[in-house]
Design goal:
Layout (H helix, E strand, L loop, with lengths): L16 H5 L4 E7 L6 E7 L5 E6 L4 E2 L19 E4 L2 E4 L9
Antiparallel strand pairs: 1-2, 2-3, 3-4, 5-6
Length: about 100
């Protein structure tokens, strides 16, 4: 390996932020339906432009389709973007702020 010297902040790194976060889904929230005891999670997906997806944990299956982003800007400091009760899912879609 050949080494070279460059001034601070000018060298090019082979490691990018995208390479570090690719495939690293985070869990934003864990939700439990108190009637059915089913567990869901809201997953942040950097590989999908940071879209948040509601996932049925036991089935490991997305509950919402590709066009949905389960997130809210209103309740970012302690609120939830979704709630499940008796198998019925209610969630906020970030682009329009509506509840579905």
């Amino acid at each position: 390996m050949v080494s070279s010297t460059a001034p601070y902040g000018t060298w090019s790194s082979p490691i990018t932020a995208q390479a570090i976060t690719k495939g690293a889904n985070g869990i934003a929230d864990v939700l439990v339906d108190v009637i059915t005891s089913e567990v869901y999670r809201v997953e942040n997906r950097p590989s999908e432009a940071g879209r948040n997806v509601l996932v049925h944990t036991k089935l490991n299956k997305d509950v919402v389709g590709e066009g949905w982003n389960v997130r809210t800007g209103v309740q970012e400091y302690g609120g939830l973007a979704a709630v499940i009760h008796a198998g019925v899912i209610y969630f906020s879609h970030l682009p329009d702020g509506r509840v579905y």
